[in-house]
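Hello Y.,

Per our agreement to keep a running log of every chain we model this quarter, I'm adding this entry. I've kept the format consistent with earlier entries: sequence first, then predicted structure.
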Amino acid sequence: MTDTPITDAPVENIETENVTAGEPQQWYSSLSEEYRNHPSIQKFSDANGLAKSYLSLESLMGRDKIPVPKGEDDVNAWGIFNKTFNVPDKAEDYKFTVDGQEQDLGQLKQLAHKFHLSNEAAQELLNAHIQDFKDYENAKIQQFNSEQEEATKQLKAEWGLKFDENLKSAKHFLEKMSDSKDDFDYFNNKIGNDVKFIKLLSKLGSSISEGSLGGFEGQVGGFTKTPAEAKAELDKILNDPSDAYWAGSMNRRNDAKYCKEHNLSFVSDEERKARVSYVNSLMQMQG
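Predicted structure for the entry above:
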């Protein structure tokens, strides 16, 4: 038996990728060149990411697709968009309600249609706007009431028992100067809580009837003074020994004969009691 020499088996010529020594292969290196060098492929870190993206895209293929309008002139795309999102065909087709009552809000209809809003979305925007307006009005009312309370507090502290009378005088003057109730309400709402303005109106109102008390200020029923005015009047009386308040104690004006001899005005018992009552009221006015 002749020994046949053993030779190396023929090696099949297999085409391999050129891989630089020392560099790890990327997961996409086995793809053909036209695919593996594409940026969309290289953005994935591994094959799992690519598979996930593919499956997600495939699941969307069976769904309704909405084209993105490329401009206002893209009639076909907008037609599909409007139909998909229930946008009325014409502005006149919108229906809006305010407090349960349908309102013909022409300008809002035009804007809603221009910006391709559904009737429901436009109505929600209208509701939000109305609520914001109501909140704004309520805030204004609360601010007005707060300012009114503060003005009242300041004026009561300054005017004391004369507060009602002075406020009435201010209101009366403002009414006289206003051409109508609407004008009065306008002025009152604008500066009706301004303390300086109210004080000015009160002075002007008082000047209308100035001198009507005939010199008997403070002793006419209903006439009151501010705390400062009451204190000044009280000091004047208590520091004047000849005043009627002191008749029979610090002076003899209760003595008719003495008054005749010394050319003094006689003070009857009723007048002295009235003067005492007046002094007591001044003490209350000054606080």
